[in-house]
Amino acid sequence: MRAIAKQAEAERDRRAKIIHAEAEFQASQTLVNAAKILSSVPAAMQLRYLQTLAEIGAEQNSTIVFPMPIDIIKPFLDLFDKSGKPVGANGADRAPLMKDIVPLNA
User: Fold this and answer.
1) What is the C-alpha separation between 25 and 31, in angstroms, rounded?
2) What contacts 62, CB < 8 A, 6 or more positions away?
3) 3-state SS class at 66
4) CA–CA separation, 42 vs 49, rounded Å?
5) How far is CA 56 from CA 18, 47, 65, in A?
């Protein structure tokens, strides 16, 4: 009797593993399809990213770390490197003095 019970349990485990594997395969196919759609429309990825941030932000007591793409930051880093001097917090050290400004109608 125990042998029959063990055999039945093994059969249930086998079926469960098959069902799980099929579900994983379907999930991976769905992810591939989603990736193809998102890659075909550049704005779609940005919208999905913003939607994810909105979902995270809807939860209470959540902190969102907003990563900044390096291609957006790079021009500012290049400006900083070219100047060779530190930039003030508000950029005041780069602002022209009023005496240096030439009026447009002069």
Assistant:
1) 10
2) 56
3) coil
4) 11
5) 34, 14, 11
Integer distance in angstroms from the first to the last C-alpha of the chain? 106
CA dihedral 70, 72, 73, 75 (to 10 degrees): 120
CA 54, chain centre distance (Å): 12
DSSP 16-65: HHHHHHHHHHHHHHHHHHHHHHHHHSHHHHHHHHHHHHHHHHHSTT----
Rounded Cα distance, 12 and 6, in Å: 10
* 84/98 Cα distance (integer angstroms): 24
The structure tokens listed for 60 are 């209470």
Taking only the tens place, the pLDDT of each residue in 17-55 is 999 999 999 999 999 998 898 888 878 888 888 888 888
Q: Name, in order, each residue with C-beta under 8 angstroms of 39's C-beta and a sequence gap of 6 or more.
A: 45
